[in-house]
Amino acid sequence: MMTLGILGGGQLGRMLCLDARRMGFRTVVWSGTAKAEPTEGVADVLLKRPFDDHEAFAEFCSLVEVATVEFENIPLPTLERVEATVGLYPSSRSISTCQHRSREKTFLREHGIPCAPFSLVNSLDELQMAYDEVGPLAVLKTAAFGYDGKGQVKVTHGDQLEAAWKSVAGEPSVLEGFVDFTCEISVLVARGADGSCRAFPVAENEHRKHILDLSIVPARVPEKTAEEARAIAIRLAEELNYRGLLAVEFFVQKSGQVLVNEMAPRPHNSGHYTMNSCVTSQFEQQLRAVCGLPLGSTELLHDTVMLNLLGDMWTPDLKRDAIWRTEGAKLHLYGKTTAGPGRKLGHVNLVGGRSVLERARDLKAQLLG
Ligand code: AMP
């Protein structure tokens, strides 16, 4: 029985462990934190110790045959040591490119991949120059550890630059031109050990308070736009010499053309629809790519809408009756016991029958009401 090592103990790790167990694999999770509720009782072994703990490193490597990540913000030295000892997919190099906005953007630019105009900034003077280049509407984003709109500030006038610079605490950042997009979409692509690639159907993503709210699949974009996004995702996986699962987020412009927003070197919230609606789930596909198995079919079996269950739906508890009553609502909970307002506690996939989008919006209203 093969044992897969997973760095990170959040919900993506949980869902990977569940698929791994179903497929007869063992899992060892190294959470890097003392708390790892989602993987508690789901991983075969759970190491709740920091990523710089040498004993945890030795134990992890002695137990696993190969390793992967379920979130990208793991210290690079840890990734490199795991890679040198047991093998890590995606590689530390690929993860490091996606970890840091400035490396990611530079990679996109060097490979001629369409993205919003940007400039790297390390000081208020550089911010001023960058604003002259990409303004007047721009977004300042910290280069490291940003997600769900954290570490971001919109700039609409030159007199806001000093305040914007303060709000990112003078950290190395990227100033991006503001994109007037019609919608946001994402593509999950897997690249296997033999270099073959398979992209999943395109998801259309709606956000609520900067956090993913709904993923609508298939995305309501022209076929040409969907094809372009899938082709770019595959090209990125190839250019990165990637092995594993890669998520790519895009802005769709009025012209129908797409711009890459960002990449994540792991399964993605917008890929949860695959769990009930594709021949292969994104987690099974990650496991297949990482463990050197042939990739599975990414065929979509039916239209789906994924609704994220965020902390504000616990008032004080989730109205589960509304979910049980909703036709084709498949509930996935992450085993978290406390509900902060923006916390992701689970999701529901709406499948089959009459309009899945209508049912998703109905259910959401009930859960928030
Ligand atoms: P990010 O963390 O970079 O994915 O940004 C979070 C959200 O902010 C995105 O999903 C967009 O809705 C919005 N956003 C980020 N960058 C831009 C941009 N350059 N132009 C317009 N909206 C943006």
Ligand inventory: adenosine monophosphate
Content-based structural category: alpha+beta
Mean pLDDT rating: 96
Could you say how many structural domains there are in total?
Answer: 3
Describe this structure in words.
There is one protein chain. By secondary structure, the protein is of the alpha+beta class. It folds into three domains: 3-88, 3-Layer(aba) Sandwich (Rossmann fold), CATH 3.40.50; 117-177, ATP-grasp fold, A domain (Dna Ligase, domain 1); 181-368, ATP-grasp fold, B domain (D-amino Acid Aminotransferase, Chain A, domain 1), CATH 3.30.470.20. 32% of the residues lie in helices and 27% in strands. It has twelve helices and 17 strands. The protein has helices at residues 11-22, 54-63, 76-86, 92-99, 101-110, 124-134, 161-167, 223-239, 274-277, 282-290, 320-325, 356-368, and strands spanning 3-7, 26-30, 45-47, 66-69, 118-121, 138-142, 152-155, 173-177, 181-191, 197-199, 203-208, 211-217, 244-253, 258-264, 304-310, 329-333, 344-351. The strands form three sheets. Strands 9, 10, 11, 12, 13, 14, 15, 16 and 17 form a nine-stranded antiparallel beta sheet that branches. Helix 1 crosses helix 10 and helix 4 crosses helix 5 (101-110). The longest helix is centred in the middle third of the chain and has 17 residues, at 223-239. 47% of the residues are buried. The mean pLDDT is 96. Residues 116, 139, 141, 146, 149, 176, 178-179, 184, 207, 210, 249, 261-262 line the site of adenosine monophosphate (AMP). Adenosine monophosphate (AMP) is lined by residues 116, 139, 141, 146, 149, 176, 178-179, 184, 207, 210, 249, 261-262.
